[in-house]
Amino acid sequence: MKERFDAIVVGGGPAGCAAAYTLAKGGLAVLLVERGRFAGVKNMTGGVLYGPVLHDLIPEFWKEAPVERHVSRHVITFLSEKTSVSIDFNSAGLDQPLYDGFTVLRARFDRWFADKVEQAGGVVITGVRVDDLLWDGQRVVGIVAGGDRIPAEVVIAADGVNSVMAGKAGLGVKLSPENVNQGVKEVIKMRREVIEERFNVAGDGGAAMHFLGFCTRGVHGGGFLYTNKESLSLGVVVQLQALIENNLKSVELLEGFKAHPAVRELIKGGTTVEYSAHLVPAGGLRMVPRLYTDGLLVTGDAAALVLATGRALEGLNFALASGMAAAETVKLAKAKGDFSKETLSQYEKLLAESFVLRDLKKFEQSADFLENQRLYSLYPGLACSLAEKIFRVDGKPKKTVWQLAREEMKGKVSLWQLLRDGLAARRTI
Amino acid sequence: MSLMTIEQRLALNTYEVDTEPHIRLKEEICRQCERQSCLYVCPAECFKAREGKISFNHEGCLECGSCHISCSREAIEWSYPRGHFGVSYEYG
Lengths: 429, 92
Prior knowledge:
By secondary structure, chain A is α+β, with helices and mostly antiparallel strands. Chain A is built from 17 helices and 19 strands. In chain A, strands 3, 4, 5, 6, 11, 12, 13, 14 and 15 form a nine-stranded mixed sheet that branches. In chain A, strands 1, 2, 7, 8, 9, 10, 16 and 17 form an eight-stranded mixed sheet that branches. In chain A, strands 18-19 form a two-stranded antiparallel sheet. Chain B is of the alpha+beta class. The two termini of chain B are about 20 Å apart.
């Protein structure tokens, strides 16, 4: 390679591709290095890319990107051992561009995105693991990969939750079983017509379903089911500490989730074609490390830029937006001819102005709220048993819903406790 | 759908297995470990306990990083597989 790179991006996920694409579009010499055989082959996600962030970068990306289905139906389901209660949201508005979100399969989606980087003029190398950073004193001046030393003005670490690059620069996230969730997922093949009929979606519409309660046997976590074109993405996300404390394996939770009456019928006849696992940072703002130093910027999961509120576990948009902000900062640094941390501090300013740090700040207390075991073990079960009392007609004199609710709560949770949890939820969901 | 063994699950994925493991255990520490979190947190069940001894097989590793984060005794020397090696997902 004769070319002298302005920037080297480590990692071909959404953060890295968004950064590299933005830089290549801006006319900078950028190298994207990905350790997998192709961008995306190491990656997995629950499966929904929400919102208009990518649309800002690649207008109407859904027309060319390998997205699966747009989300036209949202379902939240509370599970007890045998029963379930759901909130099912449908809106005709979700079927219109700009849409609400898309289910994606990352081995396909990320590969497309890396191809876009190449088309924009970036250099993409796959199948190469970056082993180290190149230093000039306190300043990062490139990478070491496959025995080669490749210099650059700046390195963008986009190498995911276990970021080796950020760690080498002393900017690594302090990962611990308390602030990390483990997701395991199956891709279940299913005929298109069966999906559309069973999930009550038409055309390219799809369902995003979230589950709380018995899917994790009441421990910190939840389940998900998303419809793709011709498959389902089904999995559970559980806090690592919850697995350790309860001697649980997430794959056992996954099997239990699949066997639950509310899920069993939805996946009937499908064939499992893939099993994958990944970690998600879930500690919120307090987990986010210093985001830059001389010659280095940290983006996406590598910087723990994930929003976990109990309403959502959203990382893709944070990865995309942070990658774009990193690239804008590098463009500014290039124009100034100065890649010192003083100039690169612009990155944090951009993130502080955007939803990335604003959302993380606003929901700063969510991580504590989500530690409340009652969210997983008590309330989903209460919702189910209360629904059973409300809907079953047993021929005896009827009680009001309020009386039934008080009966169900008796001995399980006090009204005071419920009120306190409700007030906490007001700030954090 | 019937239950699947972990071997059946891992057999669905494509692996290019390196001759050298990318994760190594400090066996003398593992031998004294009572917690053995690795047995629960590894989603590929790469860690096995036999007669009190923990062994690790890197072949089915899903490269998630759960083991080194969960090991309270820092007995796991962790890295990603070299470029090209390890698991490849078709869907992801």
